[in-house]
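fyi for ur records
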Amino acid sequence: MRQSVVKALRELDAISVENKVYPGTPDVNYIGGWMELKWLRRWPKNCDESPVKIDHFTPQQRVWLKRRWRRGGAAWLLLQVRTDWLIFDGETAALIVGRVPRGKLFELCRQSWSGMDWRDFKSWLKSRARN
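which gave:
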């Protein structure tokens, strides 16, 4: 997922980030901000009634995204589940991702795609730059 996102956002000078010194730092930095990437192979059983758990979404990542968003920075969480892609602002991601059923995720995401159209995704990101 990370390679695909970085490649798609090459025009926005996207780079992959690994920061062992500051836990919680998102996976991708690009001209317009930061993006945490999360991936699930499939929607879990009972995902329409039970929270869609994302075990690898750490407390440090939640804090980082919420703090950056509240301070005016562009911080996003991009979730891929099979062919579904959902993007959340940092604060919403910190509060609800991994804690609510599938329907609520779709309701509260900023945008969703069934199958990723990278050109549309890049255009969407550009239009949401927080200046």
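The first strand starts at residue 15 and ends at 16. thats all i got for now
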